[in-house]
Design brief:
313 residues; Arc Repressor Mutant, subunit A
């Protein structure tokens, strides 16, 4: 079974292709109007895949002009366009930008848009729910229409990731990894727009992380500590806690285990033979000695007993 849903004008008669494509574009991307450019027959395809927290689309089209009026009924998402093939000229949010391959721009369906391209063009569009944007990157909406280069810096990291992931989705028929794709998109997108973040937004992010770290430390040695316990302590959803850890490039389970191992290593170094490895393992929150020893060896490249005796990996 293919990973991607495909819609195409290939099976539609030439005179019906443009009306057909306008319907597809309006239903999947935004209430836009498409006008064909050039003398050749109009051709277009749309690929689509829904992820846990967003939707990823890839429209491919022969030369065209696309425009829309403000649409406040469709204001619940932000669309991020990554130029995958060809070049397009985009105007939205009071800005005009020429996107070359790899460049990307954000546009808000509640604001007017027009874009043109005079060669066959393929874009990758991320449809980002506004509620998630406000939770993760509240400053992002103000960046509508401002292009980001995909040729250097954090913009290149994000662009390369999205384009490579899309090409892999086109090839892969199984794609078990696809469901976790959204978890990787947000921290990379945050890096790409880091330079636009205001001091107030940076302070809010630091405060969120401080509260998270304090919640972990408060119950670190409780074997029952997990993402749901952290969420209850912080008064937020478990998904929100997972997003905070994703911004740090880790997961709640991995972060908690790493902190427990660090605490165990300190105790083994400080207390030496006055305490047993078993006591340390249970005291720091592990409920199985063999699991603790395996995790400790992976982390420090030596056994807990050797570490306690002064050996280091």
């Amino acid at each position: 079974m293919a990973l991607l849903e495909v819609m195409s004008t290939a099976e539609v008669s030439a005179k019906e292709r443009l009306p057909f494509w306008n319907t597809i574009a309006q239903e999947t991307v935004a209430p836009v109007r498409v006008e064909a450019l050039g003398d050749g027959p109009f051709e277009a395809r749309m690929y689509r895949r829904k992820l846990r927290e967003c939707e990823i689309l890839s429209p491919c089209s022969s030369p065209a002009r696309i425009y829309s009026a403000p649409d406040h009924e469709n204001a619940g998402v932000l669309n991020l366009q990554v130029q995958h093939r060809g070049t397009s000229t985009n105007h939205t949010g009071g800005h005009t930008a020429v996107l070359h391959e790899g460049d990307f721009v954000l546009y808000d369906p509640s604001k007017p848009l027009w874009l043109t391209f005079d060669v066959f063009t393929q874009a990758i569009v991320l449809r980002l729910p506004l509620a998630t944007v406000e939770q993760r990157m509240p400053h992002l909406r103000s960046q509508s229409g401002i292009p980001v280069s995909g040729r250097s810096g954090a913009g290149a990291l994000f662009s390369h990731f999205i384009r490579n992931a899309w090409e892999e989705m086109e090839r892969d028929k199984e794609g078990e990894w696809v469901e976790s794709l959204g978890d990787a998109i947000w921290p990379l997108l945050d890096m790409a727009y880091a330079s636009t973040r205001t001091p107030a937004e940076s302070n809010r992010r630091e405060e969120r992380r401080r509260v998270l770290f304090e919640a972990v430390e408060a119950e670190l040695t409780d074997p029952e500590l997990d993402v749901h316990r952290l969420a209850r302590r912080m008064g937020v959803s478990a998904r929100y806690v997972q997003m905070l850890f994703a911004e740090l490039g880790t997961t709640p389970r991995a972060f908690i285990q790493n902190r427990r191992l660090e605490l165990a290593a300190k105790r083994l170094s400080r207390e030496g033979l006055d305490t047993t490895v078993t006591d340390v393992a249970y005291d720091v929150g592990f409920n199985d000695l063999s699991s603790f020893c395996r995790a400790f060896r992976r982390r420090f490249e030596t056994s807990p007993r050797n570490y306690r005796a002064g050996g280091r990996g």
